[in-house]
Amino acid sequence: MQNKEHRITRVLAGSIAEELEIEPGDVLLLVNDTQISDVFDYRYQINEEYLTIVIRKPDGEEWEYEIEKEYEDDLGLEFDSGLMDSYRRCCNRCIFCFIDQMPPGMRETLYFKDDDSRLSFLQGNYITLTNMKDEDIERIITYKLAPVNISVHAMNPKLRCQMLNNRFAGEALKKMRRLYEAEIEMNAQIVLCRGINDKEELERSIRELTEYIPHMKSVSVVPVGLTKYRDGLYPLEPFTKQDAIEVLKTVRKWQEKCIKQYGTHFIHAGDEWYLLAEEELPDGAQYDGYIQLENGVGMIRLLLDEFREALDKETAVCLQAENIIKPQVQKLSVATGKLAAPFITMLAQEFMQLHPEKQIEVFPIRNDFFGSQITVSGLLTGQDLLNQLKGKDLGSALLLPCSLLRSGEEIFLDDMSLDDLKKSLQVKIVIVNSNGQDLHDAFLYS
Q1: Which pLDDT band, with edges at 50, 70 and 90, does 44 fall under?
Q2: Which residue among 73, 223, 256, 280 has the highest number of C-beta atoms inside a 10 angstrom radius?
Q3: Nearest Cα to 244, choosing from 271, 266, 273, 220?
Q4: Which of 215, 295, 291, 209 lies closest to 254, judged by CA?
Q5: Are strands 216-223 and 267-269 parallel, antiparallel or unpaired?
Q6: What 3-state DSSP class applies to 430?
Q7: Among 128-142, 375-389, 393-407, which stretch is predicted with the lowest mean pLDDT?
């Protein structure tokens, strides 16, 4: 155990730490007489009703605090790093790695490949298990950290080694068995590559992953993302419509087996497969509570259902109201990725039936920056928005999904600021959260 100190950068308002007059710049030395290695240790130690912490003040004086609180109450401290440690870099060279397909000249953080189990716990990141030592697995088991999100890709050990370009990648799958035996909750993903881990290999992976039910809660199958920056990389091909139809057949077959045998659909296809196959999305019940929403599984279905629920509530209110004065006609515009655009257009049309005073135009934005194979909104750049919207009649406001912006900032992926886009397009811009109620309200009040 390294002798680590952790500088406090923020004390949350109304927190236990603020009440104790702990301040930014103070340094955390010990919790329960234990040196804290990283966030795993910290979270485990503070989940007590009675604890002690030792803080060193800027003048060098050390204070010990005895704290009585509810079991899972947070202290309200934030540190230099969310991990309270350095980030672990990925040791794989995956044939499908998106970061290897990034263009030069972007901000440095976009080129960092993480494979850190602590980010799986904190942020939902997926890890390959190749970067984990035995003691890391034991800490997860001891601290009962869950869920652990695992990038499986292939249950064939030899094929997994080839896909990850790591001779230990097949052996690393045994760590998943240890987590299962310790009853640690897990989720898995399979990034599908055409002609490599699809068809028979996909069948094998799903079949073997069902052996980890009930502690493996879900498995998502998502298509590989291919940018135009692949010179010198492994030659991967995009999936066709027929490929997508076959993938969905496989997923549905296993869903039927799993729901009968285990009471869960277990295996889920990413939204992109349905768009490519030109098939209807499953109903909401088939997503088992949207376990893998952030992985692009069920995101569009949930948006549709939430929006229609909000519209139904408004319709009921309008039917009861009398002498409603309709406002003047107002035009709005929406810009989004090609994946979501047909669905947003459908919702806009449904909204305009109730609100004929609103004219809503949806602009599907082509991803010229990364290439036309990339269709999700979250990878659109400010320059693509500007180039394709400039000169268009955008109405009184332009609605953009929040996934376009860097978390907590008004900056696009290519470092263009939201303010710069507003000035260039000369239009009010409204950022819409990724749920149907917020989209409905943006249509109504923007």
Answers
A1: confident
A2: 223
A3: 273
A4: 209
A5: parallel
A6: strand
A7: 128-142
CA 165 to chain centre: 25
Strand, coil or helix: what is 260? helix
Crossing angle of helices 299-320 and 341-354, rounded to 10°: 0
Mean pLDDT on 9-32: 94
pTM comes to 0.85
Question: Is the confidence at residue 323, as pLDDT, over 60?
Answer: no
Q: For residue 147, is the peptide bond before it cis, meaning its omega torsion is within 30 degrees of 0?
A: yes
Q: Could you give the angle at the alpha carbon of 243 between the alpha carbons of 236 and 208, nearest 5°?
A: 85
* Per-residue CA distances from 21 to 16, 50, 59, 76, 421 (Å): 9, 18, 15, 12, 42
Q: Cβ(256)–Cβ(266) under 8 Å?
A: no
Look up residue 309 and give its two tokens.
Answer: 């629920």
Q: Which tokens sit at 380?
A: 């659109």
Task: Provide the pLDDT for residue 327.
Answer: 63
* Cα distance between residue 65 and residue 53, in whole Å: 5
| Whole-number pLDDT of residue 136 | 86
- What is the distance between the alpha carbons of residues 399 and 417, in angstroms, rounded to a whole number? 16
- CA torsion sign, 224 to 228 to 232 to 238? positive
Q: What mean pLDDT comes out for the span 74-93?
A: 81
Cα–Cα distances in angstroms (integers) from residue 241 to residues 51, 248, 279, 364, in the given order: 58, 11, 10, 20
State whether residue 154 is helix, strand or coil. Answer: coil
H helix runs in 270-417, sequence order: 271-277, 299-320, 341-354, 382-389
Q: How far apart are the first and last CA of the chain?
A: 54
Amino acid of residue 72: E
Q: Cα(211)–Cα(18) distance, rounded to whole angstroms? A: 48
| Gap between the Cα atoms of 151 and 191, Å rounded | 8
Element containing residue 332 per DSSP (H, E)? strand 330-337
Provide the residue count of the chain: 446
- Asked if residues 185 and 215 have their Cβ atoms less than 8 Å apart, the reply is yes
Q: What is the pLDDT of residues 280-311, one digit of tens each?
A: 999 999 999 999 998 889 999 999 999 999 99
